[in-house]
Amino acid sequence: MFLCFVMCSLNLVLLLLCRYYISKGAVVDQLGGDLNSTPLHWAIRQGHLPMVTLLLKCGADPSLTDGAGFSSIHLAVLFQHIPIVAYLISKGQNVDTADFSGLRPLMLSAQQVVGPEPTSFLLKFNPSLNAVDNVQKNTALHWAVTSGNVSAVELLLEAGANMDIKTVKGETALDLAIQTQNCFVIYMLMEEGRMRSKRNNRLLRIMEKYELFLLLASCLTVLWAIGYVMNLSSDSWLLKGCLLLFLLVGMALSVRQSVGVKNLRYLPTALMLSSVFWMSVTWFFWFMPDVTNAIVEIPVMFSLVGRLYFFYKAWRTDPGYIMSSEKDKKENIAALAEAGCLDFRTFCTSCLVRKPLRSVHRVPCDSCVARCDQHSLWIAQCIGVGNYHYYLLFLSSLTVTSVWLLYRSLLCMYQ
Ligand SMILES: [Zn+2]
Ligand SMILES: [Zn+2]
Questions:
Q1: Cβ proximity of 386 and 319 under 8 Å
Q2: Residue 158, SS3?
Q3: In angstroms, rounded to a whole number, what is the distance separating the alpha carbons of residues 230 and 344?
Q4: Among all ligands shown, which has an atom nearest to the Cα of 315?
Q5: Which of 69, 86, 218, 375 is deepest in the core (most CB within 10 A)?
């Protein structure tokens, strides 16, 4: 606490001193020191955001380069000061600013900073993924591969970086990975290459369009087949066990081959919907004809219909995604930084918005959700302020139906 107080007081004194010198005519963009840098460059190296905002307000030029050829945005990336990167971009610095050798912030991040940040942050501002530097003609992907920066390789591939661009020596990213003998990077590049060539195949492209239907059809078939195997007249549990194992392995392999990673997240949803379908069929064809008390069956019928209705509503209703335009995001960042409130504990670096109270960033949906409860695997959707009541009603109707069908099934088995 005492240390925080001392640090805050020191920062305040520095800001007052800087303001005083400028008021007395100090040159804002004076180059100096071993690294031939401006005061703005030094403030960025130290990660001093309030000083950066003050110097920019006083007319400092962020495009000036230091002795090593780096401009302000390069230095902020190199020293991993993401709030400063955000502020510089919000004040109009181009995310594709090149240094004297054509090195851009994204390349510098991929080459020098191991880990997902600030590469992930820069990618939010749509930098040129396939730009090359002037000397080695490397793209950001080449730089990430040569430095063994696995996180950056993953992010760049996900963003769609071109894998076929060749360096001045005629090497692709895969050639460089083989030279560095980084097995994991080689695997990532080969797997991505396989996925991309799959997308070029017309038949596979058509299949990709209908992947969700394929997934649902596979789950419906597998659940039916499980019921069929369990209902076989044979008493051999070994045979039934082997058939079930064969079914599950077959399903896992066919789903892995035919469904892309993006749509695999719908597997639990497809399984749940298939169970719901077969539960409804069981109720309609096996239990309905034997109804002795119609009054009891009416609520079950309502919960069967309600279950699908509430599932659809929970799935399609906006859970409370926090949206804002590119311009609003930049204005928001600048306003927060200048007010001294750009705190990355409350600011989402993925959505570039200040997180409201009780909102959480959910990775599967890549969005901040207001009053977020969870990302539900069963509906492949976040549950938040907009749809939690539908989700609760869906769970309630599912529970009522499941308990009733279980009761009726046990009655059938032991009567
Ligand atoms: Zn977010
Ligand atoms: Zn989600």
A1: yes
A2: helix
A3: 54
A4: 2
A5: 86
Find the 262 Cα to ligand 1 centroid distance in Å: 19
* Ligand approaching nearest to the C-alpha of 344: 1
Task: Classify residue 399: in a domain, yes or no.
Answer: no
- CB neighbours of 208 closer than 8 A, spacing ≥ 6? 199, 260
Candidate from 4-13, 48-57, 287-296 with smallest mean pLDDT: 4-13
What pLDDT shows up at residue 1?
Answer: 52
What is the Cα–Cα distance from 200 to 224, expressed in whole angstroms? 34
Q: Is the pLDDT of residue 407 over 70?
A: yes
| pLDDT tens digits along 154-166 | 899 888 888 888 8
Mark the residues whose beta carbon lies below 5 A from ion ligand 2.
Answer: 362, 364-365, 375, 382
Q: Compute the distance between CA of residue 238 and CA of residue 131 in angstroms, rounded to an integer.
A: 60
List, for residues 26-78, the tens digit of each pLDDT value. Answer: 777 777 777 778 888 888 888 888 888 888 888 888 888 888 788 888 888 88
Is 249 a domain residue?
yes
In a domain, 259, yes or no: yes
Tally the domains of the chain. 1
The percentage of residues in the chain with a pLDDT greater than 70, rounded to a whole number, is 93
> 298-302: which pairs have CB atoms within 8 A and are 24 or more residues apart?
299/400, 300/400, 300/401, 300/404
Alpha-carbon span 228 to 38, nearest angstrom: 76
Q: What's the CA-to-centroid distance between 164 and ligand 1, angstroms?
A: 32
**Ligand 2 centroid distance, CA of 380 (Å):** 7
Distance CA 110, CA 148 (A): 9
CA of 263 to the centre of ligand 2 (A): 14
Q: How does 371-385 read in b/e, with b if 16+ C-beta sit within 10 Å? A: bbbebbebbbbbbbb
Residue 126: both structure tokens together? 């749509």
Domain extent at residue 219: 202-264
- Residue at 33 is within a domain: no
Q: What is the pLDDT of residue 9?
A: 62
The ligand placed nearest to the CA atom of residue 380 is 2
Helix, coil or strand: residue 81: coil
Q: Of 136, 104, 150, 145, nearest to 123 (Cα)?
A: 104
